[in-house]
Design goal:
- The protein has helices spanning about 1-30, 50-70, 80-90; strands at about 95-105, 110-120, 120-135, 140-145.
- It has about 150 residues and is α+β, with helices and mostly antiparallel strands.
Length: about 150
């Protein structure tokens, strides 16, 4: 039992030395440069940030992260796609034609184009077709014509 205790002391000291030197190296790396600020950075090195500082740090990092994602991948929104359909059909905003988002077909936006017409003085909705828009390229294709 005494021998067991003698072995524990050097192992304990070795563990403390390794942990202490590793933490010091990480701090030196952060000071050496290149590492951007992180959520755990504070005004006073070595302190743990408060919850409020963590929230502020997260809010400050989020916009740059979102901008980076948007710049890497460009997608057309539903509203953009709707305008692409109107442009494809050469429709003016003043015309009585409605372009309605109906959902998704595979990975494409699906729009139904219709207009109000009068037959025998009765307004009726007439379909002008279904159009798909590729959200990555913006390409508009006729899905089916009624």
């Amino acid at each position: 039992m005494e021998q067991n205790e003698k072995m524990r002391m050097p192992l304990f000291l070795l563990t403390v030395i390794v942990l202490a030197s590793g933490c010091g190296m990480q701090e030196d790396n952060n000071r050496a440069g290149g590492n951007d600020s992180t959520l755990t950075d504070t005004q006073h090195p070595g302190e743990m940030p408060s919850n409020e500082e963590m929230l502020i740090g997260a809010r400050n990092q989020l916009p740059s992260t979102v901008e980076k994602i948007n710049s890497e991948k460009r997608f057309y929104s539903k509203e953009d796609a709707k305008q692409l359909v109107r442009k494809h059909l050469k429709l003016q905003d003043t015309e009585g034609v409605s372009v309605t988002f109906e959902g998704f077909k595979e990975d494409f936006y699906l729009f139904h184009v219709s207009e109000m017409v009068h037959f025998n003085n009765q307004p009726e909705k007439m379909s002008r077709g279904w159009y798909m828009v590729d959200p990555t390229s913006g390409e508009v294709t006729l899905e089916k014509n009624n």
